[in-house]
Amino acid sequence: MKVGIIQRACGESTQQNKTGLCEAIRKAAQQGAELVVLQELHNSLYFCQTEDTTLFDLAEPIPGPSTELYGQLAKELGVVIVTSLFERRAPGLYHNTAVVLEKDGSIAGRYRKMHIPDDPAYYEKFYFTPGDLGFHPIQTSVGRLGVQVCWDQWYPEGARLMALQGAELLIYPTAIGYESSDTPEEQQRQREAWMTVQRGHAVANGIPVIAVNRTGHEPDPSGQTNGIQFWGSSFVAGPQGEILYQAPEHEDIVQVIDIDMKRSENVRRWWPFLRDRRIEEFGPLQQRFIDS
After folding, report:
1. Structural domain boundaries in the chain
2. Is 3.30.2290.10 the CATH number for 2-286?
3. 10 Å Cβ neighbour count for 116?
4. Are residues 211 and 227 in contact, defined by beta-carbon separation less than 8 angstroms?
5. pLDDT tens per residue, range 27-82
6. Which side of the chain, N or C, has fewer Cβ within a 10 Å radius?
7. Is the peptide bond before 63 cis (omega within 30 degrees of 0)?
8. Would you name the residues annotated as active-site residues?
9. Is residue 97 within a helix (H) or strand (E), and if so which, with residue range?
């Protein structure tokens, strides 16, 4: 399968962001992409650096304007598109939601972000209600997609549940970057840990992983921090964790990667982790912590 990934710096104008994304999607399709994956909350700046009720105005219903825009493009180009939207489900009820658009422009499915961070400059709990759709892959014409969002990528349980339901790819739209007060060494440790844990999901489940991150610097509107330098580094890993492509940290990119979808079957024959799981002993995983 030819997969297009789009890593971009976002600006203040949502209209310009959308226009740029549509141009990038067209470019990926021209290069043969069958599936195009966008970064987290790609229509706007990463607004979660502050807590501001007026920013809920960025949210939209699903179906809504963005699913209409990207759905029409998916139909025109004959590609499947993975988007990441700020969903207005009801007054006072909002989600961070990935929507997969089929080649005919219809909504193939959606995933609401399950793990919601609350850290300096990442005040997502103020904006997003945790997802209630569970960890279920989305069936499309190009395969069964295990879509999750950003902070979900650190949790092996979600990846495993997707794989156990037949996901052929794990996909993570992402917005993650450097804290300016950290040393360069600490910043690189964090970025490498981010890649390592997701490559581990690929290995443990025997399927490829696609992670698409933002790039560029976005200032903190409150001035309390120096903003976020998103670290880019979007990548595709194969079912043994091998890096098939890695983007630079500080550049906008449109890249199409050819993934051998048949390789996963062979890798799972060599490394039959699903066969050897001791599922009868995993009940305690449902506890928050196992106290002695």
Report:
1. 2-286
2. no
3. 22
4. no
5. 999 999 999 999 999 999 999 999 999 999 999 999 999 999 999 999 999 999 99
6. C
7. yes
8. 40, 113, 150
9. strand 93-101
